[in-house]
TrEMBL record:
Transmembrane among keywords: yes
Source organism of the structure: Anabas testudineus (Climbing perch)
The protein, known as: serine C-palmitoyltransferase
Subcellular location: Endoplasmic reticulum membrane
Highest rank taxon of the organism: Eukaryota
Length: 565
């Protein structure tokens, strides 16, 4: 190439950079003006509905609600954690002088000069806050975790450090905690019969990897069924859902790549991104303005220091966010992905089977084309009542992962009974079993979800998320009410999951209900009656029912900050 041509290219490159920088500055200025206007308009908002200005991208209404934490509740919550912290330091002082016995792991006296194996201060939260309400977790189940379940009763005589079983069984507990969205966690019916038959033929374990002698004909059949179910060219399965993310993202991205991750992505996605060695930037939850800003900056500035273009930009999102109950704004994410020529990694762990008129997940829910999603990930542990996860997409992608994914090369093959559960349940949803059982369950789940959310709001509880999400977070806020709610619900034969800091923001502790197609209306009414009773007892009905129409939450940073405060 001639020198003058090189000079022209350099000039054009510099000019494009200047134009790009000016565009970003104009963009930021305009958004600041919009932010100021929206702030004046929404300053006193209590309940914010999230809708989209890009209505042309959506084939159905998209409504999510996030009610602001009442100021008094927030103050009392902080005070509660403050009091617990003060008493925690006091109890640590008593333990230091052997006045109070401490059961937590510590170094032996002869190892006191070693590098500490157990960081004493890092366990402060576990010792002094978590232990107070530890009885709400790890409860042993002794039945199928279906719409109802049986629990082994246990008790503690040392403030939840250890537990002893009483020998009694708490029977017929309504299960609002398991991810049994379509009710396939069952020990009777076509799935159970098919699994029993395959177990007798193939046994339980494979004792080898897929690349050696662990590739069964049922594995091949399962992957074909998964690809057909999703409407993609090819798919591959893994024995663990968590490892599907954490072991495959490093195979797809590396040094010189940029990963744009939603701030509320699951720990498996976060771990996978960190293991990849890529640069990671986080955008606000479901906030398309924040995502577009990061994309535009990535294109304009390139890599740090060198300013070379990124080798690859990977957007990582979830279908349903399991703590918020919100659904990804997939049409807008895809539009941004196409505009900036990025790649999209979609985790459908909670949405596959649970969303869409055909149960095909969030892509089906929005009526989009699966070819617009570069990497489709999901798990079999929830809607299908099995175990493991999958990656699906173009054939070239799957063939690449078969050779380069640590989870594919080194992990033991999936158990044949688990594989058969996946095949049978998926065929049932697709109607290939000759019945409408799967279609009916998908429809029943949608009806149960809308009914349960509507009743909770009418009772005065603050719930988060999308109207169609079967994950229903109900806000508890105060630390003392986390344990109290779980215990009071179990006393009334309702099993629930309660969640607090650090799994959630410190003032946003919550109960998380998971709705199932197996729940009957009588079960839901019984559960709602008990929730209302316990809500009155613990004063959990915080909602003030002041609703505002269609505020653009994801475009207004101030609305976002008001909700988080």
């Amino acid at each position: 190439m001639q020198p003058e041509h090189l000079g022209s290219l350099t000039f054009l490159s510099t000019r494009n950079k200047i134009i790009g920088v000016l565009s970003v500055l104009i963009y930021v200025k305009e958004k600041k003006n919009q932010k100021y206007r929206n702030k004046k308009r929404t300053k006193r908002s209590i309940l914010v509905y999230a809708t989209s200005p890009h209505d042309s991208l959506y084939s159905r209404p998209f409504i999510e609600s996030f009610e602001e934490t009442p100021m008094l509740v927030a103050v009392l919550t902080y005070m509660g954690y403050g009091i617990l912290t003060i008493f925690g330091y006091f109890r640590d002082y008593l333990r230091h002088w052997k006045i109070e016995k401490c059961y937590i792991a510590t170094e032996k006296e002869e190892q006191k000069d070693f590098v500490p194996l157990y960081q004493d201060f890092e366990n402060f939260y576990t010792r002094n806050l978590y232990m107070r309400i530890r009885d709400n977790w790890n409860r042993p189940i002794c039945s199928v975790p279906g719409a109802k379940m049986d629990l082994l009763e246990r008790e503690s005589h040392d403030y939840n450090w250890t537990f002893k079983y009483t020998g009694r069984v708490v029977q017929d507990v309504i299960n609002l905690g398991s991810y049994n969205y379509l009710g396939f966690a069952e020990n009777t019916g076509p799935c159970a019969d098919s699994v029993a038959e395959v177990t007798m033929k193939y046994g339980v374990g494979v004792a080898s990897t897929r690349q050696e002698t662990g590739n069964l004909d049922r594995h091949e059949e399962m992957e074909k069924v998964v690809a057909r179910f999703l409407g993609v060219e090819s798919a591959m399965a893994f024995g663990m859902g968590f490892a599907t993310n954490s072991m495959n993202i490093p195979a797809l991205a590396g040094k010189g790549c940029l990963i744009l991750s939603d701030e509320l992505n699951h720990a498996s996605l976060v771990l996978g991104a960190r293991l990849s060695g890529s640069t990671i930037r986080v955008f606000k939850h479901n906030n398309m303005q924040s995502l577009e800003k990061l994309l535009s900056e990535a294109i304009v500035h390139g890599q740090p220091r060198t300013h070379r273009p990124w080798k690859k930009i990977l957007i990582v999102v979830e279908g349903i966010y399991s703590m918020e109950g919100s659904i990804v704004r997939l049409p807008e994410v895809i539009a941004l992905k196409k505009r900036y020529q990025a790649y999209l990694y979609l985790d459908e762990a909670h949405s596959i089977g649970a969303l869409g008129p055909r149960g095909r997940g969030v892509v089906d829910y929005f009526g989009l084309d699966t070819s617009d999603v570069d990497v489709m990930m999901g798990t079999f542990t929830k809607s299908f009542g099995a175990a493991g996860g999958y990656i699906a997409g173009k054939r070239e992608l799957i063939e690449y992962l078969r050779c380069n994914s640590h989870s594919a090369v080194y992990a033991t093959s999936m158990s044949p009974p688990v594989v058969e559960q996946i095949i049978t349940s998926m065929k049932c949803i697709m109607g290939e079993d000759g019945t409408t059982i799967g279609e009916d369950r998908v429809r029943q789940l949608a009806d149960n979800t809308v009914y349960f959310r509507k009743r909770l709001r009418e009772m005065g509880f603050i719930t988060y998320g999308n109207n169609d999400s079967p994950v229903v977070p109900m806000m508890l806020y105060m630390p003392a009410k986390i344990g109290a709610f779980g215990r009071e619900m179990l006393k009334r034969n309702i099993g629930v999951v309660v969640v607090g800091f650090p799994a959630t923001p410190i003032i946003e502790s919550r109960a998380r209900f998971c709705i199932s197609a197996a729940h009957t209306k009588d079960m839901l009414d019984r559960a709602l009656s008990v929730i209302s009773e316990v809500g009155d007892l613990l004063q959990l009905k915080y909602s003030r029912h002041r609703k505002l129409p269609s505020l653009l939450r994801h475009l207004d940073n101030d609305v976002y900050e008001d909700i988080d405060d």
